[in-house]
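G., the chain you wanted modeled:
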Amino acid sequence: MNDHIHHSDEPASHRPNQLQRAKQRIHLRYPIGALLLTFVLTATVAGCTIGTNTSSTSTSPQGAAATVAVPPSAQDLQQTVINVIRTVQPSVVEVMSQGSQGSAIGSGEILTKDGYVVTNNHVVEGFSTFAVRLANNQSYPAQLKGTAPGDDLAVLKINANSLQPISVGDSGKVQVGQFAIAIGSPLGLQQSATMGIVSALNRTASEGQNRTLVGLIQTSAPINPGNSGGALVDLQGRLIGIPTLGAVDPASGGAANGIGFAIPSNRVTYVADQLIKNGQLVNTGEGFLGIRGEDVTPQLASTYNLPAQSGVLVTGFANDASGKSPAQSAGIKVNDIIVAVNGQQIASSADLSSQLQTRAPGAQVTITVVRGSGKQDIKVTLGERPPNPQG
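Predicted structure as tokens:
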């Protein structure tokens, strides 16, 4: 069970997920990996094509073709993008999964010269046989070495040597507005590259199946099903994130253009290192409150005569990695409505996850709850989120 809210058991790869509106969130998201191979590609993929030096042309009265002069600065930027793609592509792979439910395609990155590859967990989840195709079109059978469902990350291993690992950057230094390039296999089109910017930081997304991802990088680089597990890199060719989710337009139900989310590279490294060494996530390093909750809406408040119009209604408790609920130990009770953390308003479970999971275990926070007709401030020492939450 994720720390703060009980999600539907329907697989995230099969449906869109509605998100509550809040400061650090958007309306709906869909996983972009594990492209189910149940269709034939017949259309041209729209997006930002890069690495092509085209120019506007027109026919002069004399029949000579006119060209547009490109400033040296623009030429330098274009060449930089071309160089980044050429440098990164050998480190990005296509991941093919098979099982009783069919086949799927996602993407991944080479982490070590001897064949460890990181991808999204939802690219491999529910499948039994895996293969990895390199940029040179060589394919290798792959073994699933470890998964971290709560982080939507997994590590595969192929029997190969002298591979080119991707250069990993520090996602803590990423800035809104910087250029970002996504490389992967959208719609099964291997080694596709798109370009955009980092649109926002520290987004929160609910994937379903008890997963709430926090600290996500939002990007405008076009990403589509099959991009999951691929690379989001900066202009130095360094991995800054793994594309994982795309946005859904709540009005049309279709993909929302230019809104995608990536797991930051620092989190990828933290989790993947443990999966390579231990085959599982041993320490999450994330704070854990230990409640089960339901978002309070005006409709819910009216139906049950609740004393608050928004927040998180405590419906039960969940144990941290040590086997106890920090919230319950501190005095939080069932039917309390959490409305603030350290004075920051909480409107939904996504807000709560964003506030808490970015804090280290052992951190002390002040939880403001509405209880009956009054409010109370309760100090809670956060536990550690369990590696495999149940619920």
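The first strand starts at residue 17 and ends at 18.

Shout if anything looks off.
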